[in-house]
Amino acid sequence: MSTTADPLAALGSLPGVAESVETVRQTVDRVYGHRVMRRRSNEITAEAALRGARASAALQGADWALEEVRRRTDFSSDPEAGVVGAALRLSAEAGQLLGTWRQSPLQVLARLHLVAAGGSAPDDTVGRPRRAGEPVDEPAVALPLPAADEMSARLDGLARLLLAGTSAPALVTAAVVHGELLALRPFGSCNGLVARAAQRIVLVGSGLDPKSICPAEVGHAELGADAYLRALQGYATGTPDGVAAWIAHCAEAVKLGVRESTAVCEALQRGAA
Length: 273
Description:
The radius of gyration is 18 Å and the shape is globular. Helix content is 67%, strand content 0%. The chain has one domain: Orthogonal Bundle (Fic-like fold), CATH 1.10.3290. By secondary structure, it is mostly helical. 45% of the residues are buried. It has 13 helices and no strands. It has helices spanning 7-10, 17-32, 37-59, 66-71, 79-94, 98-103, 105-117, 148-164, 170-184, 191-205, 216-223, 225-237, 240-270. InterPro entries: Fido (IPR003812), Fido-like_dom_sf (IPR036597). This is Oxidoreductase. It comes from Streptomyces thermolineatus. Residues 104-249 form the Fido domain.
């Protein structure tokens, strides 16, 4: 497929992107080669899901301690608890949607929003893209909000690109999906949570992280909400430098997620977790 027909692949030639892709691949390969992964990978996957959900909720304004997330069973007591509960539900749901994503990414996005927002938003707005005049509750994303018709056209365009297939590296595709969903905010709420879950689906479904042990959400949270927004603002400009910087930011987030899971592997190996 040529880069003309495959615009995602063309992003691989942006400054620094090839280096980011290669560094991420090597970093992911190292954690997959850890001796603990040979016999306890399910535990690493479960812990990565928990830590990724906690971090995604933190970026959404609900910055809870990991042990509180682990301990709590009721997430209906207040708005912050609702955000944490939504992040946990999305983390559990994402792994069930890989096959559907390959056939209908828009269907998966609708399902993710339903899982995240069901019960906390008006029933007639849940699980579908927003319509003209409908508000968006996404205070953490300080970007101009595209009109509903522009959003719909760009969302359809993204889906067509994904369905057509791409030779772009997984990191690039995941970063674009993540960035577009945050820039477009297609739903009335929970767009950040949905965008980060979609990024996870791409990283897992592409084969880069098939066991879902590299929680990029952890890295995004560790880099900080301000840096996250600055990188997103660069992406939203559509300039080569802005898009390249966003991809690099996503690469750093994956690497930090790998570091988190490597620490879990080491703790398990020592018998400390």
